[in-house]
């Protein structure tokens, strides 16, 4: 009888917890679902008179199974697309990808000249220093949340310069 009471209390606490913490939980995963870590998520502020901007992040698949990223959303943005750059006839082109496969224990860095997020339709201006919730959707139903930092063009350019030069003084 006591045990039953406890389990009823536990269930109501759990349901309360899950409904109020939906937006803030880091992961939702079952035992056999890929374990994904996202880091260094950032989106660039929209430049004047532009309708799109870019975002970068790193995704690591710590599991033994392939993970397939199918969609990304960012709070306050009407549309987010996953893009890649490719060389076509000597020209650098970018195109939308419908899904991105991340092999077991593989890390994929979204960066200038490679994979990137293309962001559109801001419902309000992105301000440097803000955090925006980024949600990644995977084909197995897994969703991963992280905060994307809003950065300026200048700081983004600086970072990519620094990572290109590999200087260690
Ligand atoms: Cu693009």
TrEMBL record:
Signal peptide range in chain numbering: 1-23
UniProt keyword Signal, yes or no: yes
Organism annotation: Pseudoalteromonas translucida (strain TAC 125)
Name under which the protein is recorded: Copper chaperone
Keyword tags: Signal
Keyword set includes Signal: yes
InterPro entries documented for this protein: LpqE-like (IPR007410), Lxx211020-like (IPR058248), PCuAC_sf (IPR036182)
